[in-house]
Amino acid sequence: MPSPIKDIRFTLHDVLNFSDHYAALGLNHQVDADLINMVLDEASRFAQAELEPINAAGDQGCVLADGVVTTPPGFKEAYRKYISTGWAGLCGEAEYGGQALPEAFGFMLEEICCTANMAWTMYPGLSRGCIAALSEHGSAEQKSRFLPRLLTGEWTGTMCLTEPHAGSDVGLARTQASLQADGTYRIAGTKIFISAGEHDMADNIVHLVLARTPDAPGGTRGISMFVVPKINLDGTRNAVKCGNIEEKMGIHGNSTCELLFEDAVGYLVGEENNGMRYMFTMMNAARLAVGLQGVSVAQAAYNRASEYARERLQMRALSGPKAPDKVADPIIWHPDVRRLLLTQRAIIEGGRTLVYYVAQLVERTSHAPDEDSRENAQLQLDFLTPIAKALLTELGFESANLAVQTFGGHGFIREAGVEQYVRDLRITLLYEGTTGIQALDLVGRKMLGNQGAGLQAFGDFMLAVADEAEVEFPDMADKLRGLHEDWARISMEIGGRAMQDPEEVGAASVDYLFYSGYVVLAVFWTKIALAGRQHEHADYGASKVDIARFYFARVLPRTRAHELAMASGAGNLMQVGELAFTA
Ligand SMILES: Cc1cc2nc3c(=O)[nH]c(=O)nc-3n(C[C@H](O)[C@H](O)[C@H](O)COP(=O)(O)OP(=O)(O)OC[C@H]3O[C@@H](n4cnc5c(N)ncnc54)[C@H](O)[C@@H]3O)c2cc1C
To answer: Which terminus has fewer CB within 10 Å in the chain: N or C?
Structure first.
């Protein structure tokens, strides 16, 4: 299956102009368009040769026997090749053996690998989160002990938050940490659903564990973070073991483990009771990575659907035969099949542009030369992170479902190779905070919590895009300006209603997230159309303009339904009698 290299290049070079971006950050001596292309090509070669061929086999799942988890055939070998070519350290700090490339390079690698094989890509993906948290919050000693091996990939990482009774509400976690005379802690408790918690691909696994010390305050204010290696620094086995692996709906190739910490040796990261803050370093990066999973797997499903729609012959086109020499026309001639395919394209390419725009924001927050630009990037980043996570997983899932629909009944049959994408993608709407939790974060903290500053920062960018489009696409420019006003008005209305009744926040939240998400994608589809107009290959560029027009005409109007739902208020949810909820 082709990797979406051409479209990724278009997004990076033509739509988002990464060369100018790096020049503005003063990084152009280190990274340029050639390096981007080289990384894309090499990553694609690796993914096509090593990951894609083992994706279907990965569906048979991991096996736990005597505490040892065996990954599906080929997973271990592919991981060995991955680390032998240095991919694990692509964005890591040079001091610890990393190649210190900017964060967007990690997104590129992740996208290409995930399109080929999501379950496999989660193993190195978890390590990247662990590396980010230790780089930012670990002590010098912890960094020098753990980072070098994580960056070679000899060791992998995990994030251990969830407990049986503590899911979205991490503050309910009960895992205990007690300080020992030698300054280490003993960690005791059970974590569940830990991705890559145990496997046979690496020599050691570095668990980042949330736990509470005996006198810690309740809730998230009493959570601390600990590094708990599977193998102790002296080479002995630490007291952490895998009690069970879950039977799941998808991503069978990735082990989802119950981990039992039985007075395991742990090392405090940073200060006690600050664990949630540190974990957010990992979670924010992970949320963007999960949004990218939505786009990547949707792309894999689309690749199959578009190929199939050209080959499958069923019925004649409404306007007369398109393939008169055949028994029927390819289904791609039917308007509804085009709707299916173009909706997928609109989601994938708009979503990809959002992800790489966010990657630029991440890079601006740390590399922009002036304080104002860093602050502006941080505001936009905070505001867009829950949108990117929730919207792109929800729409990515919709997109993969539409790919199955394109296949008709054959899509439901395993042999067609498309239903696995739907099952694999389903988890992305749940982990790293469900859509409901992202929406609460967006409305409560990122919009109302900072008096709309994030919305305003992105709104300024939106108006700049409208100005850019004024001459070539005046209709799109007008639409963006109208949406800019409506978005601000709707946000104010929710704020006003929330002052009367706090339930209004939760009642509006998911619709607000979708509304915002469709508006955000309209901004990026305008940018895509502009880049399409300039493209050296006129046909390729024109196809981007066509999809942009499709997005504005057939997807963006969904905002209206979300607006009406928000305006209806909390009463139709909270004043509903008990009986309406009985089974
Ligand atoms: C395959 C898989 C891999 C995972 N990997 C990891 C991992 O590596 N590390 C880790 O720590 N965890 C991991 N998880 C756990 C995952 O992050 C949680 O399952 C998820 O955060 C939701 O928690 P929960 O399942 O307990 O659901 P709950 O929190 O019980 O939520 C149930 C429902 O209630 C809603 N809800 C809850 N509170 C609110 C609220 N205040 N407002 C509105 N709606 C609300 C939720 O949106 C959801 O719809 C994984 C889970 C799975 C299935």
So the answer is: C
